[in-house]
Design brief:
Radius of gyration: 21 Å
Oligomer: single chain
Structural class: alpha/beta
Strand order of the largest sheet: 5-4-6-7-3-10-11-12-13
Largest sheet: 9 strands, mixed
């Protein structure tokens, strides 16, 4: 039988206090400390995720175009905005966000949104880091992370037009971004949702048809990855759903966590003009 450690031991408690005082709050914690979650507001998805997306961690929501990635994110924003006394920052890298649409369809209080439209990727790190340090936001959303150019890319275009090779510029910038902000976000208790696109894997070495752009560091850094796509008729038959529905679309969400088995999924529905709900 394993011997139980006395966590009330004075030397033990003093060690933790000393390290946290020198290195910063939560530099060292007891392994039994529970991870907090932000519920998505969709009961079947929250059940699958054991409570929601992890707080103070990075969640990636990716998939094909018009799959519901942004819609799912705004549903999460709406559900958590009610219980927050801080702002929520949305980094509109695609420059297409319509606050009026969010207010009408998702009933989001746009007065609690900070909308950032960066000129270059490096601006995202500066603005998000400063917001975290000042603790003025509880959640940061990047929509989408590969839609904005880096400073290196912009300078290359100025010098050589569109002929220069800048393929590695964005993955390098993303790596630097996470190295610079991960600890800041964690200590401030700020969750990060990164919306990402897909690319077709022409070589298919991985055995998968699609891959996630932005480099490997982006995938490794996330605590949770949600792959969102519209359901095919085959999937709909699997879940015994109406193939001729007119209210909206059915969406399948697959998830993967670091160290967990991939492949778990849940089906939800998107109702036109209203947002997501359980089937």
């Amino acid at each position: 039988m394993a011997k139980k450690i006395d966590q009330s031991n004075l030397k033990f408690q003093e060690f933790i206090r000393t390290i946290n005082k020198k290195m910063g709050y939560d530099a060292i914690t007891i392994g039994s400390s529970e991870l907090e979650f932000l519920p998505t507001g969709i009961s079947s998805l929250d059940t699958m995720l054991c409570g929601g997306i992890p707080k103070a961690r990075t969640t990636i929501i990716w998939g094909p175009k018009s799959a519901g990635k942004s819609s799912l994110t705004y549903h999460i924003i709406k559900h958590n905005m009610k219980n927050q006394d801080k702002m929520i920052m949305v980094i509109d890298a695609e420059h297409i966000l319509d606050p009026q649409y969010l207010q009408t369809v998702y009933e989001i209080d746009v007065n609690k949104l900070l909308i950032v439209r960066p000129e270059r990727f490096e601006d995202i790190a500066v603005i998000a880091s400063e917001a975290a340090k000042q603790q003025v936001v509880s959640l940061v959303v990047i929509d989408s992370i590969v839609a904005v150019s880096t400073e290196k890319e912009l300078k290359q275009i100025e010098r050589k037009g569109f002929e220069g090779d800048t393929m590695a510029a964005l993955p390098q910038a993303i790596t630097k971004f996470f190295k610079a902000t991960t600890d800041i976000f964690y200590r401030a208790g700020i969750s990060l949702i990164v919306i990402n696109q897909i690319r077709e894997d022409m070589e298919m070495f991985s055995g998968q048809k699609y891959r996630m752009p932005g480099g490997n560091h982006l995938k490794h850094q996330s605590a949770l990855t949600l792959f969102v796509k519209r359901m095919s008729k085959t999937d709909m038959r699997k879940y015994k759903l109406d193939l001729e529905n007119e209210f909206g679309v059915y969406v399948k969400v697959e998830f993967a966590k670091t160290g967990a088995k991939e492949g778990s999924e849940v089906a939800i529905k998107y109702v036109y003009g209203k947002g997501f709900s359980d089937i």
